[in-house]
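Write out the 3D structure for:
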Amino acid sequence: MTDTADGSPYHVLARKYRPADFSTLIGQEAMVRTLRNALESGRLAHAFMLTGVRGVGKTTTARIIAKALNCIGPDGKGGPTMDPCGVCEHCVAIAEDRHVDVQEMDAASRTGIDDIREIIEGVRYRPAAARYKVYIIDEVHMLSRQAFNGLLKTLEEPPPHVKFLFATTEIRKVPVTVLSRCQRFDLRRVPIDVLSAHFARIAEAEKVEISPEALRLVAHAADGSVRDGLSLLDQAIAHGGGVVDAGQVRDMLGLADRGRVFDLFDLLMKGDAPAVLALLGDMYDSGADPVVVLQDLLELTHWLTRLKVVPDAAATAAELERTRGADMARRLAMAHLTRAWQMLLKGLQETQGAPSPIRAAEMAMIRLCYAADLPTPAEALRALNDGAGTRAAAGAPTMPASAGGSAGPAGAPAAARAMPQPPQPPQPSRPPAGPPNAPVARLAASNAAVATAAAPTQAVPQQDEPPKPNPATFAEVVALFERQREPKLAYSLSREVHPVRCEPGRLEFRPAPTAPRDLAPRVAEHLSQWTGRRWMVSVSGDAGEAPLAQQRAQAEDARRQRALAHPLVQAAMTLFPGATLETVRAKDDDGGMIASSVAADAGMAGGEDVPEAEEYPTDAFEEIPERDY
């Protein structure tokens, strides 16, 4: 604390202009009206819970209530009143924080049950001088659980001469058992206009020249808190030396000029990344914080979105926001504004946690520049439909010409149809420049250019697309899953299900207990995607066939037994004592997929791949000399 010019100690504006009665308390009219009616009707509660953000007057309101309850008037004969005189002994003592019957406790530093026990023991005694004994507990949410529990009984049934006034910024941390015993008042944030008018009166009383725009900047930065705003106003007066303008406040707060914020947002919506980076760098060199710049852009995006929804909101705005904001809101689509909001919000989070905020802000704005030029999904679909209509009108082919069909008009020479001229490459063209909300026009222009360039290539024969698979058996279904690189599903289908029915478009199986629960819908989704037709895959209660892997094992064992019974193999086993048969493969068996092996087994079972006995005489090895083997 320092001394003023007249030698008296200096008090900051937040203390000097602290409300002394309800007439000077701003922004809390609903609470004041409720308390006035309760006091006049004699329905005043024994406990009050005052909650709200910092600096809106919770502790100040508690002290004013203590004055109102104990005021005796200038003549010493008055009773409780909503307009305390401020000159009686009780009002003066409470204002100077020295009244014996008005005790104020900071729960942030005195949180334990012992502190509450002192209050419980003190409520039994009547007030020493005042009408009521008042206990003001600030930051009550900081009390411990034992302290809250110890206060419950006294709070529920206090003596008639005791009043409790609680103040907190964290109402959710207060137990509901305490809230239910109190009359709760939620102190609201003070509006910007009310703050600006209040600061103007204080500046006039302090004989300080300050511009209305500077007052609005201070009120906006206060975020609804009177104490925060008065602290900023005190700092601005010291910064300006008695004369304060908007530029000084911006420099002090690290804010960007409002007009430059509009310019930056306009460049972002136009997608002019070089100009955006240049303007952002200039603002950064001037002292603007990148985080604050992004917050200003978010606020502007919200403001423009509100203007599109509620155009009458511009009536109470400043001149710059009313003129430029209305124009930008008219030119920008709602989809572009919501996309800008999402990207700016993401960029703000990245910038707040980035080691270099300016670089993170630049990257966020570059992303927004490139995204601002994109159409919305509805606009893109509409533009594509318009482009398809343009190509159809230009005579573009809609179906590829078949190999045996005519590739040209009727009556054209066959050589001309067989040897089409190569198409000329289309000349690159840029879509015409337009306003920032014209990406659809550019997309439509691009589609038109593509349609024009595609016209000379009508005579070029198109190659047929490969046919889509159409599995008809369960083995073919499993083979398709293996070819499409779905090993987990292929494993489940081959080892954990019993095939019941399989035909194109329909599949039924009985899953084993180890099979995935969502096997049927996943198989149906993949088959429908790969085959281009709808597949119905259902779970059946029928027994079905053995799993495909078990069928393969059985077929392999049958093929092995047939091979062992073959005369040629028996001759080889006789010729080489102790030899074993390891693997039996057909000539066309690649030894790979399960389904292919089963198919090969089926073919061998029919006798197609097993060589006839007479092709390999039993005495074939007798012609080989013994020394050669």
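Strands lie at 47-51, 102-106, 133-138, 162-168, 183-186, 209-210, 243-244, 497-503, 506-511, 536-539.
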